Amino acid sequence: MATIRYPLHPDSLEQEPPFIRDMRGLANQRKLLGMRAIGKMLKDLLENGTESRYLIGITGYPILELKTTSRGGQPGGARVYLYRADDQEFHLCAAEVKSESAANTDLIKRTAYIAWHWLHGYEIFPKTRANKRTGRTQPS
Question: pTM for the complete prediction?
Fold first, then answer.
């Protein structure tokens, strides 16, 4: 079973991960069918790792995307941009739902930027996280 992590943007480490921010934006825009498609793609990624039916590479970038129309998937315009830490760990950086077929180059560049920083040893994951019930911090 694969692992999913949510890196922070290297230029704003104190904020929430960009993927989570993108998902909040989709929820606010009521893109519920697209969010459901993203959930289905993430479930497939967790279960199948690099063999996910939705996972494809992006030419010219060291990153991947989950795309609903990949390998016979359902249409819908949902995309998740990510990179692979190893065969079973994936770092999610961006998400979008749109009707056009072209990928959002700004989100691709954001993902590549985060991936570059991770590859070069920059800290992009929070060192601690607060437990909402107890208020105590735990290692992430």
Answer: 0.85
What percent of the chain is predicted at pLDDT more than 90?
Answer: 68
First to last CA, the chain: 19
Q: Which CATH number fits domain 3-139: 3.40.50.510, 3.30.2310.20, 3.40.50.720, 3.40.50.2000?
A: 3.30.2310.20
How far apart are alpha carbons 113 and 120 in whole angstroms?
Answer: 11
Name the phi and psi angles at 106, rounded to 5.
-65, -40
The model's pLDDT over 85-139, given as tens digits with 9 standing for 90+, comes to 988 999 999 999 987 777 889 999 999 999 999 999 999 987 765 545 544 444 5
- Bridge-partner residues for 65, per DSSP? 56, 81
The domains of the chain are located at 3-139
Q: Say how many residues make up the chain.
A: 140
The token pair at 28 is 């606010």
- Better-predicted residue by pLDDT, 64 or 68: 64
CA distance 64 to 112: 10
